[in-house]
Amino acid sequence: MKRWKHARGALAGVLMGGVVAVGQAAELTPVTVSTTWYAQAEHGGIYAAKALGLYEQEGLDVTIKMGGPQVNNVQLLLGGATDFSMGYSLQSLNAVKQGLPLVTVAAFFQKDPQSLMVHEGQGYDEIADLKGAGIRIPTAGRVAYWPWLKAQYGFTDDQLRPYDYTIGPFIADKRIAQQGYITNDGYFLGKEKVAAKSLLLADAGWGAYAGTLDTTRAMIDEHPEVVQAMVDATAKGWAAYFENPGPANTLIQAHNPEMADALIAYSIKEMQAQNLLLASDAEGGRYGMMSDERWKTFYQDMVEAGTLPEGLDYRKAYDLRFIQETWDD
Predict the structure, then answer these.
(1) What is the pLDDT of residue 329?
(2) Integer angstrom CA distances of residue 248 from 15, 39, 210, 239, 261
(3) What does DSSP assign to residue 70?
(4) Which of 79, 81, 73 lies closest to 140 in space, CA to CA?
(5) In whole angstroms, what is the distance from residue 230 CA to residue 237 CA?
(6) pLDDT (tens digit per residue) in 56-105
(7) CA distance linking residue 64 with residue 280, whole number of Å
(8) Which residues contact 35 (CB under 8 A, 6 or more apart)?
(9) Backbone angle region of 281, left / alpha / beta, with phi > 0 → left and psi within -120 to 50 → alpha
(10) How open is the CA angle 143-36-89, to the nearest 5 degrees?
(11) What is the pLDDT of residue 70?
(12) CB burial readout 200-220, b (16+ within 10 A) else e
């Protein structure tokens, strides 16, 4: 793995004793990347690359812009306010549908952390068991994975229940399910002492990549070296995060002071236990890897669900060359 081997010595130095001194480059290229939400462990690779100087080693001066409920990452990216953004594969495919020049260049979550929380003892042992049950799902989920659940498992719209971003109604009614996030669910349910569990959509066949690194077609065409540097450093950042999350967590909490140590620890544990980042194409430690076959299969699933049209040039949604170069043997 030529590019990875080239940086292994520097990464080892970072993990052993702090930030390695950046070379005497004349200047760094300024780059801005936006995340999907407030700073959290699920953004650990980006924060590790920043905290440990890995971006600087690749010639980049990276600014991290936190996401949030009022932040439209696609709008910021396509409007030129950011250069890169975290996303997910359906978002990139929808961009192609809308004629927008958004392109995914790496996919760090091989398994989407999206889940459905269910109470123990209700006979809900897998996603298929929820056919006919009430499910609390927000608008985003209703336009993303809900059509797939209907096509795949025969769910119907009369199962949908209002969603208000709290877990109170879920706690009160043991027969309903609610959208969750596998890296957070157990932490918050445990605080409420609720006997519940999470069913991971990815384990039921939901094939979306998540935690993607997206950019624009213009960036790829005009500055491919910047894209390559960003992909390389972020991949190294994820490896570094799981080796030693401390420096990145300090930066995460500086950006988001409300992020609790216990939640970060829980999220890291679940990312590893569920093998969210190193399943499928990323087996063997190839953080961010993608494949044509995986994109094709997911696109076909979305066509069958009625989410995307047939005949879409889905390959415009992604570009494999950069992550393949990162892991070039």
Answers:
(1) 61
(2) 12, 10, 20, 12, 12
(3) T
(4) 73
(5) 10
(6) 999 999 999 999 988 999 999 999 999 999 999 999 999 999 999 999 99
(7) 28
(8) 43, 46, 64, 65, 66, 67, 86
(9) alpha
(10) 50
(11) 87
(12) bbbebebbbbbbbbbbbeebb
What's the CA gap between 240 and 234, in Å, rounded? 10
List phi, psi (to 5°) of 234.
Answer: -70, -40
**Is residue 308 within 8 Å of residue 93, measured between CB atoms?**
yes
Closest CA to 207 of 306, 269, 298: 298
The residue behind tokens 């025969």 is 154
pTM of the model: 0.91
Bridge partners, 118 (sequence order): 197
Q: Give, as one character, the DSSP assignment of residue 289.
A: -
pLDDT at 22 over 60: no
Q: Which of 102, 74, 78, 79 is nearest to 316 (CA)?
A: 102
Tokens of 159: 């199962």
Q: What Cα–Cα distance (Å) separates residue 259 from each residue in 38, 39, 227, 256?
A: 9, 8, 30, 6
Taking the C-alpha atoms of residue 151 and residue 92, their distance in angstroms, rounded to an integer, is 21
Q: Extract the tokens encoding 20.
A: 């390695």
Q: Which residue has the tokens 């009614």?
A: 173
Largest CA distance in the chain: 63
Q: Residue 160: CB partners within 8 Å, gap ≥ 6?
A: 134, 135, 137, 142, 146
* Residue 129 neighbours by CB distance under 10 Å: 15
What phi and psi values does residue 273 have, to the nearest 5 degrees?
-65, -40
Other beta carbons less than 10 A from residue 304's beta carbon: 14
CA 209, CA 277: separation in Å to the nearest integer?
10
For helices 44-51 and 246-255, what crossing angle results, to 10°?
100
Handedness of CA 252, 282, 91, 224 (dihedral sign): positive
